[in-house]
Amino acid sequence: KKISDILEKSAPKPGVPADLQNLLSQHFGENRSVIELEELKLSDSCFLPANDLTHSFSSYLKEICPKWAKLRKNHKEKKSVVMLVICSSALRSLELIKSMTAFKGDCRVLKLFAKHIKIQEQINMLEKGVFHIGVGTPGRVKALVEQDGLCLNSTKYVILDWNWRDQKLRRMMDIPEIKKETIDLLEMCIIKLCREGSVKLGLF
């Protein structure tokens, strides 16, 4: 059975923290020790309220981040963003950037994907300016973190574009390459920051 056949018949269920936990334990279950798997566990307090599928992107962000105006004002660090949004493609990134207009107010948004944008350009922009929101694909975000172009220490929110489906009805975690890159990125730094309490994870 194709995933799209199954999905067409079932009403889409919004993603919940347990879905991400299960995904991580399935991904790492076979090659990690129990202790290593414990390190990847996230308590419910690491998560923001999940999207119940009634929200627009702006209304979801307003709900999870009511003090955005203040956070935005206080953010002065270069090479960093307050909010990082991870999605499956450049096209979807652009859609999300458009649809957060009502939320973002007067803040600078940086596109963090590979299509038509060289990584060095993004590194230069992050070094020179202060950006509040980064929206992009896990592969490019991971590369920026690895090359020290993006630092997540002052990031407060990481939002995964979890529920959205493409034309083939696949969510980002249904696409093997995107799933792997997202999990790599989570494992590389985001899970640790969540466990320390500095980052909250949201499933939109």
From TrEMBL:
GO terms for cellular component: 90S preribosome; nucleus. Signal peptide: none annotated. It holds the Pfam family CMS1. Gene3D superfamilies: P-loop containing nucleotide triphosphate hydrolases. InterPro entries: Cms1, P-loop_NTPase. This is CMS1 protein. The lineage of its organism: Eukaryota, Metazoa, Chordata, Craniata, Vertebrata.
